[in-house]
Protein backbone atom coordinates (compact mmCIF):
# COMPACT_ATOMS: atom_id res chain seq x y z
CA UNK A 1 0.00 0.00 0.00
CA UNK A 2 2.98 2.37 0.31
CA UNK A 3 4.41 1.88 -3.18
CA UNK A 4 3.20 3.75 -6.23
CA UNK A 5 4.47 4.64 -9.67
CA UNK A 6 5.05 7.76 -11.68
CA UNK A 7 5.44 7.86 -15.44
CA UNK A 8 8.57 10.03 -15.61
CA UNK A 9 8.09 11.30 -19.19
CA UNK A 10 4.54 12.41 -18.38
CA UNK A 11 5.64 14.06 -15.14
CA UNK A 12 8.43 15.94 -16.95
CA UNK A 13 6.07 17.08 -19.71
CA UNK A 14 3.71 18.52 -17.10
CA UNK A 15 6.54 20.11 -15.13
CA UNK A 16 8.00 21.73 -18.24
CA UNK A 17 4.59 23.11 -19.24
CA UNK A 18 4.04 24.47 -15.73
CA UNK A 19 7.36 26.31 -15.51
CA UNK A 20 6.95 27.75 -19.02
CA UNK A 21 3.53 29.11 -18.00
CA UNK A 22 5.26 30.74 -15.01
CA UNK A 23 7.66 32.56 -17.32
CA UNK A 24 10.69 30.28 -17.18
CA UNK A 25 12.71 30.00 -20.36
CA UNK A 26 14.09 26.51 -20.99
CA UNK A 27 17.17 26.10 -23.14
CA UNK A 28 18.04 22.53 -24.08
CA UNK A 29 21.21 20.93 -25.45
CA UNK A 30 23.37 23.72 -24.05
CA UNK A 31 26.01 22.18 -21.78
CA UNK A 32 27.74 24.42 -19.27
CA UNK A 33 31.39 24.58 -20.26
CA UNK A 34 32.61 26.71 -17.36
CA UNK A 35 31.32 28.25 -14.15
CA UNK A 36 32.93 31.64 -13.49
CA UNK A 37 33.14 32.82 -9.89
CA UNK A 38 34.28 35.90 -8.02
CA UNK A 39 34.10 37.00 -4.38
CA UNK A 40 32.30 33.87 -3.21
CA UNK A 41 29.61 33.95 -5.89
CA UNK A 42 28.92 32.59 -9.35
CA UNK A 43 29.01 35.51 -11.77
CA UNK A 44 28.06 33.58 -14.93
CA UNK A 45 28.22 30.29 -16.75
CA UNK A 46 29.79 29.82 -20.15
CA UNK A 47 28.22 27.77 -22.93
CA UNK A 48 28.95 27.45 -26.64
CA UNK A 49 26.35 30.20 -27.17
CA UNK A 50 28.01 32.63 -24.78
CA UNK A 51 27.79 33.59 -21.12
CA UNK A 52 24.62 33.46 -19.04
CA UNK A 53 24.11 35.20 -15.72
CA UNK A 54 21.49 35.06 -12.99
CA UNK A 55 21.01 35.93 -9.35
CA UNK A 56 21.11 32.30 -8.25
CA UNK A 57 22.26 29.06 -9.86
CA UNK A 58 21.27 25.43 -9.46
CA UNK A 59 23.32 22.40 -10.47
CA UNK A 60 20.94 19.47 -10.94
CA UNK A 61 22.77 17.69 -13.73
CA UNK A 62 22.25 14.13 -12.53
CA UNK A 63 25.19 11.85 -13.20
CA UNK A 64 27.03 14.80 -14.82
CA UNK A 65 26.83 17.04 -11.70
CA UNK A 66 30.36 16.28 -10.47
CA UNK A 67 31.85 17.30 -13.83
CA UNK A 68 29.80 20.52 -13.93
CA UNK A 69 30.98 21.45 -10.43
CA UNK A 70 34.71 20.91 -11.09
CA UNK A 71 35.20 24.61 -11.92
CA UNK A 72 33.94 25.55 -8.46
CA UNK A 73 36.62 23.58 -6.63
CA UNK A 74 34.07 21.16 -5.19
CA UNK A 75 34.75 17.46 -5.59
CA UNK A 76 31.37 15.78 -5.44
CA UNK A 77 31.37 11.97 -5.21
CA UNK A 78 28.67 11.32 -7.80
CA UNK A 79 29.07 8.77 -10.55
CA UNK A 80 26.78 7.34 -13.22
CA UNK A 81 25.09 4.04 -12.45
CA UNK A 82 23.42 2.43 -15.45
CA UNK A 83 20.02 0.87 -14.93
CA UNK A 84 18.49 -1.27 -17.66
CA UNK A 85 14.81 -2.14 -17.85
CA UNK A 86 12.63 -4.23 -20.13
CA UNK A 87 9.00 -3.92 -21.16
CA UNK A 88 6.51 -6.71 -21.78
CA UNK A 89 3.11 -6.29 -23.47
CA UNK A 90 0.20 -8.42 -22.35
CA UNK A 91 -3.53 -8.12 -21.77
CA UNK A 92 -4.75 -5.36 -19.49
CA UNK A 93 -5.18 -6.32 -15.86
CA UNK A 94 -3.02 -9.47 -15.80
CA UNK A 95 -1.04 -7.91 -12.95
CA UNK A 96 -2.74 -5.34 -10.74
CA UNK A 97 -0.01 -4.33 -8.28
CA UNK A 98 3.67 -3.49 -8.17
CA UNK A 99 5.69 -6.49 -7.06
CA UNK A 100 9.17 -6.18 -5.56
CA UNK A 101 11.50 -9.12 -4.91
CA UNK A 102 15.25 -9.31 -4.18
CA UNK A 103 15.95 -5.82 -5.52
CA UNK A 104 13.97 -6.36 -8.73
CA UNK A 105 10.48 -5.13 -9.54
CA UNK A 106 7.49 -5.67 -11.78
CA UNK A 107 5.38 -2.60 -12.52
CA UNK A 108 2.06 -3.07 -14.30
CA UNK A 109 0.64 -0.27 -16.42
CA UNK A 110 -3.03 0.26 -17.20
CA UNK A 111 -2.50 -0.40 -20.92
CA UNK A 112 -1.18 -3.94 -20.32
CA UNK A 113 2.52 -3.10 -20.50
CA UNK A 114 4.67 -4.47 -17.69
CA UNK A 115 8.02 -2.93 -16.75
CA UNK A 116 10.66 -5.24 -15.27
CA UNK A 117 13.80 -3.82 -13.75
CA UNK A 118 16.38 -3.07 -13.09
CA UNK A 119 20.11 -3.55 -13.25
CA UNK A 120 22.75 -1.64 -11.31
CA UNK A 121 25.88 -1.30 -13.44
CA UNK A 122 28.96 0.84 -13.01
CA UNK A 123 29.62 1.31 -16.72
CA UNK A 124 30.55 4.99 -16.83
CA UNK A 125 28.39 7.14 -19.10
CA UNK A 126 27.51 4.23 -21.39
CA UNK A 127 23.73 4.03 -21.87
CA UNK A 128 23.73 1.14 -24.31
CA UNK A 129 21.59 -1.88 -23.54
CA UNK A 130 23.00 -5.39 -23.40
CA UNK A 131 21.70 -8.85 -24.19
CA UNK A 132 23.07 -10.10 -20.87
CA UNK A 133 20.98 -7.57 -18.94
CA UNK A 134 17.89 -8.42 -20.99
CA UNK A 135 18.31 -12.13 -20.22
CA UNK A 136 18.91 -11.41 -16.52
CA UNK A 137 15.83 -9.21 -16.28
CA UNK A 138 13.71 -11.77 -18.13
CA UNK A 139 14.84 -14.53 -15.73
CA UNK A 140 14.14 -12.36 -12.70
CA UNK A 141 10.73 -11.29 -14.05
CA UNK A 142 9.72 -14.90 -14.75
CA UNK A 143 10.83 -15.94 -11.26
CA UNK A 144 8.49 -13.29 -9.84
CA UNK A 145 5.60 -13.75 -12.30
CA UNK A 146 5.93 -17.10 -14.13
CA UNK A 147 3.43 -16.36 -16.93
CA UNK A 148 5.84 -13.72 -18.29
CA UNK A 149 7.90 -16.57 -19.74
CA UNK A 150 5.48 -16.68 -22.69
CA UNK A 151 5.17 -12.91 -23.12
CA UNK A 152 7.47 -11.13 -25.59
CA UNK A 153 9.77 -8.30 -24.56
CA UNK A 154 8.77 -5.29 -26.67
CA UNK A 155 11.37 -2.79 -25.49
CA UNK A 156 14.59 -2.42 -23.52
CA UNK A 157 16.25 0.81 -22.40
CA UNK A 158 18.86 2.15 -20.04
CA UNK A 159 19.23 5.27 -17.94
CA UNK A 160 22.03 6.76 -15.88
CA UNK A 161 21.39 7.36 -12.21
CA UNK A 162 23.47 9.84 -10.21
CA UNK A 163 24.91 7.52 -7.57
CA UNK A 164 26.72 8.72 -4.48
CA UNK A 165 29.15 6.66 -2.41
CA UNK A 166 26.84 6.32 0.59
CA UNK A 167 23.52 6.65 -1.24
CA UNK A 168 22.80 10.07 0.26
CA UNK A 169 21.91 12.89 -2.13
CA UNK A 170 23.48 16.34 -1.91
CA UNK A 171 20.75 18.95 -1.56
CA UNK A 172 22.41 22.06 -0.20
CA UNK A 173 24.10 25.37 -0.93
CA UNK A 174 27.61 25.15 -2.28
CA UNK A 175 30.04 25.45 0.68
CA UNK A 176 32.01 28.36 -0.88
CA UNK A 177 29.56 29.99 -3.29
CA UNK A 178 26.62 31.87 -1.78
CA UNK A 179 24.38 31.75 -4.84
CA UNK A 180 24.83 28.15 -6.01
CA UNK A 181 22.59 25.27 -4.91
CA UNK A 182 23.43 21.62 -5.58
CA UNK A 183 20.73 19.01 -6.03
CA UNK A 184 22.19 15.67 -7.13
CA UNK A 185 23.19 12.17 -6.08
CA UNK A 186 19.61 10.88 -5.73
CA UNK A 187 20.53 7.51 -7.24
CA UNK A 188 17.25 5.58 -7.75
CA UNK A 189 15.09 7.91 -5.70
CA UNK A 190 15.01 11.27 -7.48
CA UNK A 191 11.31 11.37 -8.30
CA UNK A 192 10.41 9.40 -5.18
CA UNK A 193 12.04 11.95 -2.87
CA UNK A 194 10.21 14.80 -4.61
CA UNK A 195 6.80 13.25 -4.10
SSE order and pairing:
Elements: H1 8-21, E1 34-38, E2 41-47, E3 50-52, E4 57-59, H2 65-69, E5 78-89, E6 99-101, E7 104-108, E8 113-117, H3 131-144, E9 153-164, E10 170-173, E11 180-184, H4 190-194
Parallel strand pairs: 4-11
Antiparallel strand pairs: 1-2, 2-3, 5-8, 5-9, 6-7, 7-8, 10-11
Word description of this protein:
- This protein has 195 residues and is of the alpha+beta class.
- The chain has helices at 8-21, 65-69, 131-144, 190-194; strands at 34-38, 41-47, 50-52, 57-59, 78-89, 99-101, 104-108, 113-117, 153-164, 170-173, 180-184.
- The strands form three sheets. Strands 6-7-8-5-9 form a five-stranded antiparallel sheet, covered by helices on one side. A three-stranded antiparallel sheet has the order 1-2-3, with no helix packed on it. A three-stranded mixed sheet has the order 4-11-10.
- A hairpin with a 2-residue loop joins strand 6 (99-101) and strand 7 (104-108).
- The longest helix is centred in the N-terminal third of the chain and has 14 residues, at 8-21.
- The radius of gyration is 20 Å and the shape is elongated.
Features of the shown structure:
single chain, elongated, alpha+beta, 19% helix
Helix content: 10-25%
Structural class: alpha+beta
Walk across the major sheet and give the strand order. Answer: 6-7-8-5-9
Computed over alpha carbons, the radius of gyration is: 20 Å
Written as H for each helix and E for each strand, in order along the chain, the element string is: HEEEEHEEEEHEEEH
Give me the count of strands. Answer: 11
Give the overall silhouette. Answer: elongated
**Unreliable sequence segments:** none
The percentage of residues in β strands lies in: 25-35%
The whole-number mean of residue pLDDT values reads 91
Report the total helices.
4
Biggest pleated sheet: 5 strands, antiparallel
CA(first)-CA(last) distance? 15 Å
Amino acid sequence: PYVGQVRNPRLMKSLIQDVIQRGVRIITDMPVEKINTSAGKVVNVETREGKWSAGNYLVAAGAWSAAVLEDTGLSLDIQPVRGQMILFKTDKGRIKRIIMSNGKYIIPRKDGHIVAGSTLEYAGFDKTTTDDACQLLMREAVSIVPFLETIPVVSQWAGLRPGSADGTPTIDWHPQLDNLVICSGHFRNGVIIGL
